[in-house]
Amino acid sequence: MGDLAYDWGLMTWKTKALFIGLVVALVLVLASPHVVVLKPVAEGLGLTTMKTVYVPVNHTVYVPPQWLSSLETVASSNGYCSGRLVVLPNNTAWFVWLWLVPSQYAGQVNLTRPGYMLYYNATTHYATFYRWVAYDLVSQGINYMGSGMCYISNATFNNYIVAMCGDTYGWGPMNTIKYPISTVIPPGNATYSGVVLLSFSGPSGLPFIYHTNTVITCNVAVTYVSNATAALWLPVTTNQTLVGYWRSAGVLTLGHYDNYDYTMGYWVWDYPS
């Protein structure tokens, strides 16, 4: 059941009640700018200065810049990511990103446990694990929620490890875009800088609970395509340093890397490969 279930089992009923109360309070605070009866809460917390963004179905959604700025401060110590969000005509989307994780932070959150080992090199003793992840991409122009997997290598480069996260199942999963509250997608191709909130769990069906310290800075290219085939050759990131780190981890683990491992199609559809 993973360390989340283990920790939960050790809590007293008072601690559980307090924890649930804090989670509910966080949800209410984050929802307060959008719910009429909660607007006084938003005003009291200084969340009333909003940036207006527009989505393709003529809904207006509000994003609190001050809250975003505070998240970015936390994110700087938890790593950096670069990825791509592909939007398809059938109101679905794929999101894949490369995450450069400070090794100290990776040790603190114990990214490889509970995890499932995918590959292990008996000579180099390097391994690749995966962790289930829920995510919320937030910036002043985009808000997108989903879930998927993070592939994480225990190889360290310049005090960082690398992870490939998002819609990386390999059989073409898609997250449905829901308007107007849960997801905001800008109406055109652009690159956005924001943060990603992460919550890790095992595949046991445990509820995802966001941890406010699991936040990373992320540059995301939003790309609209006419069909799924058009997205296959799009690069996950154009940051060649991140790609180089990921490929080096593959060499240490598998003895080689795939020439197409930088593409959306490789991760979402196992093609091209």
SSE-based structural type = alpha+beta
How far the N terminus sits from the C terminus, by CA atoms, comes to 33 Å
Mean of pLDDT? 74
Helix content bin: 25-40%
Q: Main attributes?
A:
273 residues, alpha+beta, 2 domains, seven-stranded mixed β-barrel, two-stranded antiparallel sheet
Question: How would you describe what is shown here?
Answer:
Helices cover 26% and strands 32% of the residues. The protein has 273 residues and is α+β, with helices and mostly antiparallel strands. The chain has two domains: 1-48, no CATH class; 51-268, no CATH class. A seven-stranded mixed beta barrel has the order 3-4-8-7-6-10-11. The radius of gyration is 19 Å and the shape is globular. The two termini are 33 Å apart. The relative contact order is 0.18. Mean pLDDT is 74; it is low at 1-8, 14-63 and 203-208.
Detail the topology: elements first, then pairings.
Blueprint: H1 2-10, H2 13-31, H3 39-44, E1 51-54, E2 60-63, H4 65-75, E3 80-87, E4 92-102, H5 103-109, E5 116-120, E6 127-138, E7 143-153, E8 160-166, E9 175-176, E10 190-201, E11 215-224, H6 240-254, H7 264-268
Parallel strand pairs: 3-11
Antiparallel strand pairs: 1-2, 3-4, 4-8, 4-9, 5-6, 6-7, 6-10, 7-8, 10-11
